[in-house]
Amino acid sequence: MKVAFLGKGGSGKSTLATALVQHLARAGVSVLAIDADHNMDLSYNLGADPSVFLGSDPSLIKKHVGLDTDATFAEVRKTALDKQLAFHLSPMDEFTLRMTIEVSEKVRLMTAGPHTDIVRSGEHCSHSLAAPLKVYLPLLQLGPDEWVVIDERAGTDPVATGILAGVDLAVIVEEPTVYSQRVAKQIAHELTLAKVSHIVVHNKHAGVEGDTAAMVETVMAYKKQKK
Questions:
Q1: Crossing angle for the helix pair 207-226 and 13-26, nearest 10 degrees?
Q2: Whole domain around residue 208: which residue ranges?
Q3: What is the pLDDT confidence band of residue 162, given thresholds at 50, 70 and 90?
Q4: Which of 111, 167, 203, 215 is buried most deeply by CB count within 10 Å?
Q5: Does residue 4 belong to any structural domain of this protein?
Q6: Is the pTM of this model over 0.90?
Q7: Are 37 and 151 in contact (CB under 8 A)?
């Protein structure tokens, strides 16, 4: 199952994404954690200091599919589908192996990475750092005991990138504030328009342990319902 966490900045999405990764790993499930935010909170929360980033060269996935660097990601995805290419966690394909690091026996990490000189120069926006996920996520085929947990950027921006088309569930993290609730509604509205399944979980309501337990229970209940 592929799960993405969204919410306003500071809502606790990285904290809850980390908690789900750790819960799954303790349960013996293999997890690919994807840090799609250039702040890299999920990476640091997992105790990792990655040096391999999708954003360092977003064109690598284009080369992997066999296209030139000027091809659009939509063209890359279509070509990959036509070629019946796929990505796997087990056995791990060449691209996944190259673009991830091992965090623990059950957890690997893929990181979009910090801003690059190309982003700073204005040649590309920060969305380019995670752009390869538009191709990677829809073509990633998971086994029965494999999960992907994605920590997305703040606000409604992630919905417009097309990345979430490759997820099974978007988890919207909502704090007990008017601003957070408003942003959560905006995200839910955009996800509905994009036809992405989503749920809302509350954070900073019942304390860290209570909020985490409620989130895990809600996500696992959704997974069970979809079987």
A1: 60
A2: 9-226
A3: confident
A4: 111
A5: no
A6: yes
A7: yes
Tell me the three state secondary structure of residue 101: strand
CATH code of residue 180? 3.40.50.300
pLDDT, one tens digit per residue, over 95-109 is: 999 999 999 999 999
Q: Where are the beta strands (DSSP E) in 129-180?
A: 140-141, 146-151, 169-174
Domains of the chain: total: 1
State yes or no: pLDDT of 119 exceeds 90: no
Indicate if the pLDDT at residue 207 is higher than 90: no
Q: Which amino acid is at 53?
A: F
Give the separation between CA 99 and CA 96, rounded to whole angstroms.
5
Q: For residue 211, tell me if it sits in a domain.
A: yes
DSSP 142-205: --TTEEEEEEPPSTTHHHHTSGGGG-SEEEEEE-SSHHHHHHHHHHHHHHHHTT--EEEEE-SS
Distance, CA of 12 to CA of 3 (rounded, Å): 15
Pairing of strands 101-102, 107-111: antiparallel
E-assigned strand segments in the chain: 2-7, 30-35, 87-88, 101-102, 107-111, 140-141, 146-151, 169-174, 198-202
Say what percent of the chain tops pLDDT 90: 69
Q: Which residue do the tokens 């060449």 mark?
A: 94
- Beta carbons of 208 and 216 less than 8 angstroms apart: no
Residue 3 lies in a domain: no
Count of residues making up the chain: 227
Q: Are 19 and 165 in contact (CB under 8 A)?
A: no
78 assigned to some structural domain: yes
CA distance 94 to 87: 9
